[in-house]
């Protein structure tokens, strides 16, 4: 979305973040010896992800999404109405794969008679968005986007589009991923995840912070969007969101291309680098990926020397929709005009933040920008 | 009339249990030939005798892809047909303005199944296909092959995904995000899906019979449908043949039950009403409805009630084509939109295959036999788990001139 003006008002936001310390758990013996670190919501005291009474059985991602939306609504002065005027737009790459794998393991261990329908129903990726509709009574368009690191950006684009063109009065937008052992196995087997237990230190200076791979994580963030100008005092405005995928598998990430991509995002939104109060990036502590981020940051700061830069994945770990948690920090930065305490600043000292640029790059080549303004 | 761009269909590609091309598909309609048959893709003690809509032959040979999941191959083959059909040669649009929106649920689920079979039976973790199991890979492969560098996403709205993907494709064109959108859906058979539906006692032991009094459930299928969407202006500027006008769409959620449809079909009613309003048409304008019609005990009455509520006594011709393909899940909405366009082009109504006697509790009489008919406007509906509903209104291209 490259709106002239801006795309939508953001009237509520919340996030469930795992916290700053990865938990260690034994690795599956078939894959590795020792322990694996991961950022989990359990570490942040989120054991109380309890479902409403009337819902018998929720998957973990569903519970995370419901809690995130409830928290967003608690602080919302322009709450969405039940019924057809409220749309739900969810980005989730992993959805409820935990239940899918439980269903599959039962099939294998117990035979096909062991297939439990509840796990299958939850395994359908949009079970999460439909649980939000059920829980809150939203009967408008209900979309689930499952496209790796573009999932949240797709959901955000669609939510903003729906309110902008009048197909919804409110859009509840959510980014959520719940980590399961399969994701850890996959990430370790394919060489994306590190085994070092030290917390992530994205874009940190010094050799101690440098290492191959990142640490997996999980979390959820929820937002309520309304049409531009429909709310008297929104938290922030969504100016633009833009996500793109690679045109080849396992692409070599080129700094020049990435810088051009970010500048294109700014240009389409008619924003100059020196108009930004904060650049929030998704650097994840992986030495190769962070090197690209660092050069893109350097390139932007060459055009806007005072640009403040922050990172946040030391609180979330790495997962496809982690950008939703970064987006929540950007909204809070604009709403408060200050850098949220959770953000680790790596450059600059911003004052009176009116505009934040988010930039995300995944090792698979998916990349996105989003701009939030006061 | 609003000033938004009008979205047209300029290319289509399809693969399903009845064949690999548009012509195969329509010939099956004319001949009343079902693609349901015996499962050969994997062994299954409980589901092996259930008729399924399995694509015959090796999709990898058709797609030409090096690696990838069964879903990837099906999607790429359908996209290749669609791209060839629309006449684009790659130099007539900016690649950054080319988008891909696919509905998908299963992706490389077969790879996930094989990974766990080895892990649990042999205590061996074979990572060779793990990177190819995500459902977004199909859209990525399609984008890579055609160099489409614009907005790209995968919608996973259960069995309403294909219709929703076409709706989102329209959004992208109307919002000025894209000039060309390859939109559709894909899914492939797998152990989880087949056993999942069977565990819910939704699968018919003798093949689905939508709207029939003796129906016993759905049949699971696989396939892909991809449509090329453009604004009318973009298509005209390059001299493209317009196959249909995607004139309206509506999407809703029942917010009733996580897997069952709302019994009165209120959500579908609203989706169809929105689609008609979006097309600026009255219900009486619809000549044919390609219904979702899965053949389950819950879906068919709910859908029939919604249709009757909207159209009253003037219900147009209705048929479900699920017995041809089986229920192709995320592909269903796209495959059935293609069938609907073919019906408009060939001026004939595809039959509601398998119908023997109409259920007295279902207030409609589907078209049981292939039948020539004068069709100008048609609707295609999709319903999915989570109470998702999607309705599309498609018109013959001459209507563009009439409404200019």
CATH superfamily of the largest domain in chain B: Thiolase/Chalcone synthase
Distance between the termini of chain A: 18 Å
Kindly state the number of beta strands of chain A. 13
Structural class of chain A: alpha/beta
**Helix amount of chain B, in percent?**
25-40%
Task: Measure the end-to-end span of chain B.
Answer: 9 Å
Total of helices of chain B: 13
**pLDDT below 50 for ≥5 consecutive residues: which ranges of chain A?**
none
Judged by helices, strands and strand pairing, the structural class of chain B is: alpha/beta
The figure for the number of domains of chain A is 2
Q: Which H/E pattern describes the elements of chain A?
A: EEEHEHHHEHEHEEHEHEHEEE
Largest interface: A-B, 67 and 68 residues
Low-confidence runs of chain B: none
Integer-rounded radius of gyration of chain B: 20 Å
User: What is the CATH class designation of the largest domain in chain B?
Assistant: Alpha Beta
Annotate the secondary structure layout:
The complex is a heterodimer of chains A (374) and B (404).
Chain A: E1 8-16, E2 23-26, E3 35-38, H1 60-74, E4 86-91, H2 97-110, H3 117-123, H4 127-136, E5 142-145, H5 151-164, E6 170-177, H6 181-189, E7 219-226, E8 236-244, H7 255-268, E9 278-281, H8 287-303, E10 308-311, H9 322-336, E11 344-347, E12 355-361, E13 367-373
Parallel strand pairs in A: 4-5, 4-6, 9-10, 9-12
Antiparallel strand pairs in A: 1-7, 1-8, 2-3, 6-7, 8-13, 10-11, 12-13
Chain B: E1 7-15, H1 22-31, H2 59-63, H3 70-86, E2 98-104, H4 109-122, H5 137-146, E3 152-155, H6 161-174, E4 180-187, H7 191-199, E5 223-231, H8 232-237, E6 244-253, H9 266-279, E7 288-291, H10 299-311, E8 317-320, H11 322-325, H12 332-346, E9 348-349, E10 371-372, E11 377-384, E12 388-395, H13 398-402
Parallel strand pairs in B: 2-3, 2-4, 7-8, 7-11
Antiparallel strand pairs in B: 1-5, 1-6, 4-5, 6-12, 9-10, 11-12
